[in-house]
């Protein structure tokens, strides 16, 4: 219960960037330092974890229509019982054919992602901690087309091959845990559209994808809570210093369990945000109020797949399967000097 467990998380990030331009060459470099502090108290016991990371990025664009990115990240984790250092190196390359306002591009990338704070520490409620997670390694290929004029249109096909992919999977009744999946494959297509009219921006996108666990050599399984398709539409208005956004997101059919026997039917969520920016010369102060799940959707229907089909109704599930608040309010403050 809320009286038995208390959890606090604070974070800080500082970034320094450099950009060099010359004719058809450009070079971008940035360095970041981040610090996160996590504390959790259950009854009389306290658990804490500090995470410091250094991140360096280097990007080069040439006149030969290529873009190469290199990223190095080091993560220092300190907890009550251990101290360890993790490093990752990611790189990507893009080859594109540019003609007026249209681009045809081919991308390849090899990336390594270190576990996040939520994945390692859990949320003290439905998400258990996972202290022995391995870094996630992804080999990514993408072929796409982009038309940048108004209205703009983009289309892409992609495939990812992952080792030790980190996913939130059921660990016990009503409990979930971040787990490494030895081998997995994700592939799909996405099309998006954006139209501008005055201070209005109207956009929509549709994606069809499969997220498969390929660790079993005899049969592939769909990874739980990975929708077969998603659809979203959004309208944004920026009159003066104000910014208003209203968007809908349709989450398609997806399985709830590892054995792919329980199917969760589609559901739609609505999001609203209102912001205001106060400008002073080249500096500004911004405030934004966001409401996730505006209409308070809190339940959806499931269907048991197989010979003995049955129907039921359960609480709406989040990304890792646990119920999340029906309506969430967030206030953001941002200053740029």
Shape: globular
How large a portion of the residues is in β-strands, by DSSP E?
over 45%
User: Kindly state the mean pLDDT as a whole number?
Assistant: 81
- Tell me how many strands there are: 21
What about the largest sheet? 17 strands, mixed
Question: Which structural class matches the secondary elements?
Answer: mainly beta
Describe the structure.
With 337 residues, the chain is mainly beta. 1% of the residues lie in helices and 71% in strands. It is built from one helix and 21 strands. It has one helix at residues 117-121; strands at residues 5-22, 25-42, 45-62, 66-79, 83-99, 102-113, 127-128, 136-147, 152-172, 175-197, 200-213, 221-222, 229-237, 242-251, 254-255, 262-264, 267-280, 283-292, 299-304, 311-315, 328-336. A hairpin with a 7-residue loop joins β11 and β12. The model is unreliable at 307-311 and 319-324 (pLDDT under 50).
Highlighted features:
337 residues; mainly beta; 17-stranded mixed sheet; 1 helix; 1% helix
Q: In terms of topology, how is this protein built?
A:
Blueprint: E1 5-22, E2 25-42, E3 45-62, E4 66-79, E5 83-99, E6 102-113, H1 117-121, E7 127-128, E8 136-147, E9 152-172, E10 175-197, E11 200-213, E12 221-222, E13 229-237, E14 242-251, E15 254-255, E16 262-264, E17 267-280, E18 283-292, E19 299-304, E20 311-315, E21 328-336
Parallel strand pairs: 7-10
Antiparallel strand pairs: 1-2, 2-3, 3-4, 4-5, 5-6, 6-8, 8-9, 9-10, 10-11, 11-12, 11-13, 13-14, 14-17, 15-16, 16-19, 17-18, 18-21, 19-20
């Amino acid at each position: 219960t809320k009286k038995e467990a208390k959890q606090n998380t604070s974070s800080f990030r500082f970034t320094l960037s450099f950009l060099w331009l010359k004719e058809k060459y450009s070079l971008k470099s940035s360095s970041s330092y981040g610090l996160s502090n996590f504390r959790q108290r259950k009854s009389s016991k306290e658990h804490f974890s500090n995470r410091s990371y250094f991140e360096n990025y280097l990007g080069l664009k040439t006149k030969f229509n290529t873009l190469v990115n290199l990223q190095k990240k080091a993560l220092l984790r300190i907890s009550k019982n251990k101290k360890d250092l993790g490093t990752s190196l990611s790189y990507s390359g893009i080859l594109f054919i540019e003609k007026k306002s249209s681009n045809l591009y081919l991308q390849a990338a090899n990336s390594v992602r270190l576990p996040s704070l939520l994945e390692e520490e859990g949320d003290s409620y439905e998400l258990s901690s996972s202290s022995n997670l391995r870094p996630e390694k992804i080999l990514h290929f993408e072929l796409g087309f982009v038309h940048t004029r108004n209205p703009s249109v983009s289309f892409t096909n992609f495939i990812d091959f992952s080792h030790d992919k980190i996913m939130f999977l059921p660990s016990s009744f009503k409990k979930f845990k971040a787990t490494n999946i030895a081998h997995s494959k994700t592939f799909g297509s996405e099309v998006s559209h954006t139209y501008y009219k005055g201070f209005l921006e109207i956009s929509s996108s549709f994606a069809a994808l499969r997220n498969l666990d390929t660790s079993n050599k005899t049969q592939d399984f769909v990874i739980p809570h990975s929708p077969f398709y998603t659809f979203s539409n959004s309208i944004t208005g920026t009159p003066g210093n104000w910014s208003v956004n209203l968007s809908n997101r349709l989450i398609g059919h997806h399985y709830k369990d590892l054995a792919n026997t329980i199917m969760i039917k589609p559901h739609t969520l609505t999001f609203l945000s209102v912001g205001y920016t106060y400008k002073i010369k080249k500096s500004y102060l911004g405030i934004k109020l966001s409401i996730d799940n505006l209409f308070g959707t809190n339940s959806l229907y499931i269907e048991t797949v197989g010979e003995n089909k049955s129907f039921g109704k359960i609480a709406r599930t989040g990304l890792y399967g646990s119920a999340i608040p029906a309506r969430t309010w967030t206030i953001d403050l941002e200053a740029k000097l």
